[in-house]
Structure formats: structure tokens, C-alpha cells
Amino acid sequence: MITADFLSGLDRFSLIVKKRVTSNYAGGRASTALGRGVTIKDHRIYAPGDDFKLIDWKIYARTDDLYVRRYEEERNLMVHIIIDCSASMGFGKPLSKFDYASMIGVGFAYLAMQDNEKFQFSTFSEGLELFQSKRGLKQLAAMIDYLNEVKTGGHSQFMNAITKYKKLLSSRSMIIIISDFLFPVDDIKNGLCLVSRHDLHVIHVLDPAEWDLKLDGDVKLHDSESKQIMRTYISPRIRQRYQERLEAHISTIDATCTQISARFNVVKTDTPIFDAFYELLN
Fold first, then answer.
1. How far apart, in whole angstroms, are the C-alpha atoms of residue 54 and residue 57?
2. Which of the given ranges, 62-76, 170-184, 225-239, has the highest pLDDT on average?
3. What is the spatial distance between Cα 130 and Cα 138, in angstroms, rounded to a whole number?
4. Does 144 have pLDDT greater than 80?
5. pLDDT of 166 over the 70 cut
6. Count of helix runs (H) and strand runs (E) in the chain
7. CATH 3.40.50.410 domain span(s) along the chain
8. CATH of domain 4-31+76-281
9. For residue 203, what are the contacts with CB-CB under 8 A and spacing of at least 6?
């Protein structure tokens, strides 16, 4: 839940945050302008809120996919914020992983707004929910309202989501992906590689209970995405194996990000949010 207290804190923190993020993504970006001019530049996949007059119906007739025409004055360099809203992201009390991820996403959107940049936010689970790219306070308010209403659920289809999202991108952009990444590592690697030419920030959100398994003895485990319930016995050896596999999973994502020159951070939801921001932007 994005609260008024968080927004007040973000406003106070904005000078430090803006300085660090601007140095990361604003300095080296070209100012190519696109828009509703005379010459068609290219096409991109339709997003809710786009003008129906811009839809290219000839492409729709061939592909059954909606694309909009882009002209020579529409700005296409922006910040893209992609947040996982699958069932596993609902884990955690009093703050779920999705709540924490949403605050991080809103923080980056706020910085884009402060710099008068367009930003586009999206969520994914079994499908990809796209929103029109805009700039300004109204877009930020719409993002907050939407995220406060989202109900986590479904099984992550990361590869499908990133494959679809890639169709939106025509030039180098800043992409921020926020997830618990609790899905097959091959999907993670392949998905990240699809957008590797962009300024990519990968933020891995975990609950402290996932980071340090405290379960002991005879327990029932419920998979929030598959809905399966498994009864098992948690011994010290099982806890050790769990920790080893978690660390190996994180290390693989980290190595992939290193290979494609992406930034990778792991954050725990018990970390004060502005401490996490400082770490993400350092």
C-alpha cells in the first residue's frame, strides 16, 4: 500500500534521489523527438489509453495484434517500470513483497516526474498489464491508485511478459524490473537478455522469512502460485540445502546481469525503504 507517509518521505528524500538517478540515466540520453508529425517513424504495440486514430489496421488484419503508428515528434526515450504482481509477491507481513516493490517503482516514477521525463509502468503475472506512457503528476497519481488496488495472484509468466514488452521498445531506454524472481532461472536469463541493450536495473525483492528459513519440524507448505500443499519435515540439513539453493539462484541472476551489463540488487522487505533507495542508487 502506497501511503501518504511514504509519499511525504519520498518528497523529502527527492533531492538526494534525483541527483543519483539523474546521473545514472539522464546524462547520456539522446533527445530524439518523435510524435504526431507527417512522416511515420515506426510502430509499437497498442497500450490502453492510446489514441484509436493511431492504430494501423493493416497490421491488425495481418497479425491480429494492435499496433499504433509513431511519427517524428513523439518522444520515445523514457523510464519503464515493470512490477511482478504474481501470487508469490503477496507474501509477507506486515508489508508484502508487492507493497515493497510498488514503493520502489513509485520512487523511480517520482524521479522521472521530477525530471519531466515520460515513464511507463506495467505489471505482470500470467499476463502483462500495460499502461500508456505519460509524464507528470496525473500519471504518478494513476500509478499509485492502480497499485493500491492490485490483488496479487496467478503464476509468473516472465519470459512471455518480457517478450511482449520488448515490442514497445524502439530505442535505448531505462528499464527497471522488480520481482521476487521465484521462477525458472532459464526464463530469467532469457528474459533479461531480450532487453540487455537497454539501461537495465534488476531488483530482487525477498521477505526475511525467505532469506533466512526459520521453519522447523513437521510443517505444511502452501505454494501460492500452483496452489499445491506439501507436508514435509524441516531438519537442519533441509534448511542448509534451502539456503544453498537460494544463494545459487541469486548468484546465477547476478552473473547474468554482470554478463549483460545490467545492475542487480537484492533487497529485503525489512530494510527501511529509503535505506533501500540509497543502496539502489549508490
1. 9
2. 170-184
3. 17
4. yes
5. yes
6. 9, 10
7. 4-31+76-281
8. 3.40.50.410
9. 101, 104, 176, 177, 178, 179, 265, 267, 280
